[in-house]
Amino acid sequence: MPFYDLRCKECGEEFNTWASIQQRENKEIECPNCHSRELEPVFKNVNFIVSSKSYDSGSSCSSGCCGGSCGF
Ligand SMILES: [Zn+2]
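^ thats the input. predicted complex w/ zinc ion below
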C-alpha cells in the first residue's frame, strides 16, 4: 500500500496514513480530527519523492510524484 501525507481541507489537519489507491480514489480515508473526507495530498519531503518510485506501478502521474493518485 502507498503511504500518504494528507491534509484535511476542512480543518487543516495534516496526517499520515497507509491506504490503497482505491481507498484514496473512493475517498474512504477520513480526517482523524473532524472525519471529513475532503483531503488533499501533501508533498513536503524528499524521502516521499524518492520512495514513491518503489510503489509507482501503472501510474498515470507523469512525474511520479504521488504514485498516480494526485491527478497531475
Ligand atoms: Zn479535518
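Residues 8, 10-11, 13, 31, 33-34, 36 surround zinc ion (CB under 6 Å).
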